[in-house]
């Protein structure tokens, strides 16, 4: 038996656009199913909303999302970020800048006190990301 921890995002009506954006950033296989696809009863005009979307990337990332129909309570996530980390500097730097398109860079990719490179970005859908690049280099001495 296997177990996994997966990021699952909720949006009010932006799931499809968000997941297509992430597909463009990371590549991979994107599967999207609507409430109508599953025959789920939702309010008028909500049947085409995303009930479940899953992006599986070539790197093995799995990102899932769904829309929350109007008749259901929705509170956007606060205080949570998705962290990308590793030593593939070019890929991580590319993802950082791609996620920033239409969004906002909080901290540019720089050398933090612990070494490597670190930056934060909030994408155009309000999702916070941290990018940690292990460059193998120590932080400069103070």
UniProtKB/TrEMBL annotation:
Domain PhnB-like: residue ranges: 5-132
Domain of life: Bacteria
Protein name: VOC family protein
Species per Swiss-Prot/TrEMBL record: Microbacterium mcarthurae
Pfam families: 3-dmu-9_3-mt (PF06983)
Annotated CDD domains: PhnB_like
SUPFAM superfamilies on file: Glyoxalase/Bleomycin resistance protein/Dihydroxybiphenyl dioxygenase
